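User: My instructor asked us to take a sequence, write out its structure as tokens, and then describe one feature of it. I'm not sure where to start. Here is the sequence I was given:
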Amino acid sequence: MSRTTLIHRHVTVHADELLVEHVDGRFQRVLEPGRHRRARRATYRSVGTREQLATTAAQEVTTSDGVPVRATVAVRWGVGDPLVYVERADDPDAVVYLATQLALRSVLAEVSVDDLAAADRAALGARMTALVTPAAADVGVVVHEMHLKDVVLPPDVRAAYAEQLVARLRGQARLEAARAETAALRALANGAKLLDEHPALARLCTVEALPHGSTVELRA
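Assistant: Let's start with the prediction itself. The structure tokens for your sequence are:
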């Protein structure tokens, strides 16, 4: 519905819209924000110019290795051609929505679940944007960017990844413990060699290790 304000023979276009003017059913012009003289027998369609942000419903998509995942996509878009937007399709938003769903399926079908876990989400979004842009342009829409927002793995796959993570962390902990033990043994070996080479130092260490108040008998 148009949000225009009619004052006698003038029409006011608000800052966040454009008006597509038809006279006797034929396109005449696109009215920019401001006050315009109203044509006789004219009808007007309001087209919002604000950027829109839409998120698809979660849909199940199969990866290249046959794992079903549930994914959602965020789309930032706006109207690029107001005339095409009002004349080409009954529901241009639905056309873009369908193109987004198809692009999501196409992109994820080329990615394995392992690669998906470590994938660059921005790169996947750029690939989807390239796929959706032509279909969106056909209905007067410009797709600015798309983001792969959420990816939910099946419960058994999530459990397997959790087990992998725990095993990797335990392995890293064992490796660090082994490194510490090796360093300690190396330090002991170096200390023993030093004491062998310097008997006076060995005697000093022995004295320092005696309990407080002990007496030391020195023999020639």
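For the description part of your assignment, you could build on this observation: The longest strand covers residues 68-79. Try explaining in your own words what that tells you about the chain.
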